[in-house]
Design brief:
Chains A, B: Pathway: Amino-acid biosynthesis; L-methionine biosynthesis via de novo pathway; O-acetyl-L-homoserine from L-homoserine: step 1/1. The structure is a homodimer. Chain A has helices at about 120-135, 150-160, 180-195, 210-225, 225-235, 250-265, 270-280, 290-295, 315-325, 345, 350-360; strands at about 10, 20, 25, 30-35, 45-50, 85-90, 105, 110, 140-145, 165-170, 300-305, 330-335. Chain A is α/β, with parallel strands linked by helices. Chain A has 2 domains: about 10-175 and about 285-360, Alpha/Beta hydrolase fold, catalytic domain (Rossmann fold, 3-Layer(aba) Sandwich); about 180-275, Rna Polymerase Sigma Factor, Chain: A.
């Protein structure tokens, strides 16, 4: 009865609530997910894909006009080979793409969560993903792969469930978010919270804080790209129909467009919560310290850094590399330059293809 | 009768208005300025200091509790030696530190300019500075020095008045603002313009757009510093009294404080206009092309780059260096690393001291 390629949904934690790391609990968590390819008889070819901050459960669309966020990376014979592996991708807890988040109805009150949505972190998201895999009767992951926020999730999988995961492929993310990156997230959050339409997070029966969210997205875009790419794409070209303090240069018009486009697909409260989960990511939560946490990892761990990444800076990637090595992780590290900066993991298939392939296939 | 060290003021363009490059005119322009040291009998020791975006006419305070923005760089025996040179510094046209800007009263209407303030660019600011020097009967500048936005002004001085200027010292700025940097300015402008208290720029009888201006300032601060400096200063330390979506990490509290502090000293409309003047800076305005403009420079030109500068990136400084050399400018180029990034020119005296001294004294 399943509609082909429509996002699948399941309600988990119906009998026992999920106890959240920072306190509170969530019950009857709806999870949106998608699967690709076929699970083999031995159930040894399952790969979990973890999406980045504003991603969703559908990295790929087969025979559809739609384009997923990893559309060019997946398919028969591609780096994420749907003819060989069984891929599972789910929307994260706290998101707004089908999985329970601030815009969902609280089953206990029958009202939208809004400001009452509890604080969730990556470790909570992993637990929901694990519950989904249990529901799907997947006893083991051949690999977990993700970029940015998704790379943090992939790392935590190998820490929290070391015997469950053979391989981790972490693209463009470090083991902790930097002070500067927290600062950018702070500015984005303040833009949303300061929007008079935010109403403390309870805006679902009103106009949402669209201007704040658009400003946040524009800033995010700047940290995901590089000056080199923006210079190549727009340089200092001026719009024909320009406004002196508004969209005057083409690069401004591009950013404004990206800001507006984002409003159609994202909820401000989800954005606030996921940004904070990014800030708060710390592999050591629940363990004595970072070394104790990282030394649990048994998976073959591939880490790919982009030297021009402005969000996860190279110095942080180097620090992560060092920590992983010091804690005995079987690390396979690659770095390269891309004009796309942080966004390279969504765009630069030619570079990532052999690295992902090696991460999934080489010994 | 002049009060010691209070900012001086003069009204210029009282007989003939200033015709602005982008159209329109301004008359009876009030100019706030300060001078330091003594002009020698031959009038050969005058140095014009051009301030950066949010600076003012007082880089230095003598025998005062106050601290100017170049307090540590100026004084007897220091890089900017007040016992040898006669320094002049004025607040830029469009600013809010005593020189005519959007918050000033339009003498033609007796009402505050607000949204009616015309669009001003660096070339206009230079003309006001030149009128001030004429008023002060200074026939020649030994040097013009400035960092960032002030460096752009210094450059334009040597182009527009090649026989008037012996030396240029340009710290941490390139010949043009990059696409990415325009993008950051765009986000800052949108934060201000989207603030419901902005009222299209006519907010002087109401509450000003303080939240938008604070957000803009916080973002500015991030581009002026580096992750390394923020990591050293704050790392991932959490505030004792924290708010989950507000000031949670110490770096957030620092940024929020910087945002609030800025509100006491800056006007949103001035900020918008000066940001745009930064974006629009182009040495070639009024000349056939950039080569024609740069080849007019007769001054000994010192350019100092900070390799970690996130606002004026090294690639742009290198491009500027190349253009200056190609056009026969007597260029003296230095580059170095500072954890302070762009803000180094306001902070890192130990590095800048010998470079500024060389720029002012060496042949």
């Amino acid at each position: 009865m399943e509609e082909k390629m429509a996002v699948k949904k399941v309600t988990l934690f119906t009998e026992k609530p999920l106890e959240l790391i920072l306190g509170g609990q969530l019950s009857s968590i709806e999870v949106a997910y998608q699967t690709y390819g076929k699970l083999n008889a031995e159930k040894t070819n399952a790969i979990l894909i973890c999406h980045a901050l504003t991603g969703d459960a559908e990295p790929y669309f087969i025979a559809s006009e739609q384009s997923g966020w990893w559309q060019n990376f997946m398919g028969t014979g591609l780096a994420l080979d749907t003819s060989r592996y069984f891929f599972i991708c789910s929307n994260v807890l706290g998101g707004c793409k089908g999985t329970t988040g601030p815009a969902s109805i609280n089953p206990n009150t029958s009202r939208v969560y809004g400001s009452q949505f509890p604080n969730v972190i990556i470790q909570d998201m992993i637990k929901v993903q694990k519950a989904l895999l249990d529901y799907l009767q997947i006893p083991h992951l051949y690999a977990v792969i993700g970029g940015s926020f998704g790379g943090m999730q992939a790392t935590q999988w190998a820490i929290d469930y070391p015997d469950f995961v053979n391989r981790v492929v972490n693209l463009c993310s470090s083991l902790q978010f930097s002070a500067e990156a927290i600062g950018f997230n702070h500015v984005m959050r303040q833009a949303i919270i300061s929007d008079p339409n935010f109403h403390g997070g309870d805006y679902y029966d009103k106009t949402p804080p669209l201007q704040g969210l658009a400003i946040a997205r524009m800033l995010g875009m700047l940290t995901y790209r590089t000056d080199k790419q923006l210079t190549k794409a727009f340089g200092r070209a001026i719009k024909t129909d320009n406004h002196f303090l508004g969209d005057y240069f083409q690069v401004e018009s591009y950013l404004s467009y990206q800001g507006r486009k984002f409003l159609e697909r994202f909820d401000a409260n989800s954005y606030l919560h996921l940004l904070r989960a990014l800030d708060l990511y710390d592999p050591a939560i629940n363990y004595a310290n970072i070394d104790t946490a990282l030394s649990r990892i048994k998976a073959r761990y591939t880490l790919v850094a982009v030297t021009s990444d402005q969000l996860f800076k190279l110095a942080d990637l180097h620090k992560s590399k060092q920590l992983l090595i010091e804690n005995g992780v079987d690390l396979h590290y690659h770095e390269f330059h891309s004009d796309y900066g942080h966004d390279a993991f969504l765009v630069d298939y030619d570079f990532f293809e052999p690295r992902i392939r090696a991460g999934l296939e080489e010994d």
